[in-house]
Amino acid sequence: MDSTEKEKKRFRRQYGIHITSKELFNKFILPYIKDNMNQYLWVDLFAGEGNLVLPILEEFSQDQRVRFFREHIFLYDIHQEMVDRCIDNAISYGIPENVAQNNIFVRDNLNNFPESLKKNKYPIYHITNPPYLYLGYIAKHDETKKYLKYFKEKNEGYQDLYQIAMMNDLRNDIQNIIYIIPSNFLFGSSVSNKFRMDFLREYQIIKMIIFETKVFEFTGTNICIGFFSRKQIPSTNIQDFNGIKIKKKDIILNRNFKLNPKYKYRAGSVFDEFIETFRRKNPLIVKFYLSKDEVSQNNGRCRVEVIDANKYEHHQYKRLTIDVNKEMIDKINSNILYTKTVDSGSYDGRVGLGIIPDDFNVSGIYVSGNTYRTHPIHIFLYPQLSIIDQKLLKDYFNSILEHFRYTLDSQFLTTYKYSNANYTRKYLGLSQVKGLIRTFPHNLDKNNIVSLQHLVTKKKIEDIFRFLKRINS
Length: 473
Known about the structure:
- The chain folds into two domains: about 5-265, Vaccinia Virus protein VP39 (Rossmann fold, 3-Layer(aba) Sandwich); about 285-470, no CATH class.
- A nine-stranded mixed beta sheet has the order 3-2-1-4-5-7-6-8-9, with helices on both faces.
- The chain has helices at about 5-15, 20-35, 60-70, 80-90, 95-105, 135-140, 160-170, 185, 195-200, 270-275, 290-295, 325-335, 355-360, 385-405, 430-435, 445-455, 460-470, and strands at about 40-45, 75, 105, 125-130, 175-180, 205-210, 225-230, 240-245, 250-260, 285-290, 290, 300-315, 315-325, 335-340, 350-355, 365, 375-380, 415, 425.
- By secondary structure, it is an alpha/beta fold.
- The longest helix is centred in the last third of the chain and has 21 residues, at about 385-405.
- It is elongated and about 85 Å long.
């Protein structure tokens, strides 16, 4: 690895910086802005090499570029190395070095906004690919802990550096912005809920381009390009906009999005509406994990075979036998379901519910260490369901989940990470597992049970919805 590659690797790890390609700008951003070139001050506060603004110069003849650059382009980066590259890039477009140096600066724009820009006669149009580093990652690594300062006081509660950048634009009344950001802006829950509520009160989403394919060479983060316009009056209105999904093999889907503030503006809220509307008045109580502490507290002479979710060796989970009391072994044997919360990459390995004895040939899924939501998780239900009813619950759950994955193109799920799978891998939250289980009608009479079994077996989803509506009423 040469010195340039080592430097790029350092930038990615320490600063969350991924250099934006010129092609990304030309294909997806330029067509949207090219008719308004002379009306704005084109700014990138986290410019890197300048590839989200400098290509604008190609729309002008050589003799027009210097004047346009001097009056309409301002670029910044916190790193001198990046500023030097950005200046070299400007020179390659025919901008004299001294002119480039007058409009390209070293500055920490996460800390505060450059006030001098607001004195310009042209309104600011901010196009940027800001740094992304998740707060949890920042806190765990010595080389990134210095960024904790950005999350204090007015920024307390935000979860990523890109959110700090966007809130700085909001507080400085920037009217038009285009951001390349992680797609958890749309699909994330806890990581984005507060930020979306604060930001989308002030901004309207004009459109989104969502990539479910690899964009940046050295990260698995799925990204989107968001086009935002400041509202005249702050409001918590439903956000209705068109989105373009770019999937593998250059498949492009046009989708209409409606983000509801009731559900924290999270995409795919139709699923949330379903689990809220059809939650039973006396829903099943759901508990997760067969923990080491619980097993220790119920030690006894009954032996039961389990897999250890913390020990995955040679493409399988380690099998072991644990000794528990009769009450504990009855609890394990009478709860046969588990949840898989991360797609494995094949259609047979998609998230949902499964049966432990069928899939692992043991009775339980034991957690010998920390609980991880990406491992298979044993589910315990109260009141206890019969084995037949648990199998019905599994089929009911998976049928409805797949229905929403198809009709919503998995919008309600969080993208797990980029992979070479035939579809984009998704993550199912435990709150979503619990919510869907709570819609299951577990205390039906015999005739209704037979009716539900028939509908689930035939995968008659709309009829299942009508059935739920009837019994709930």
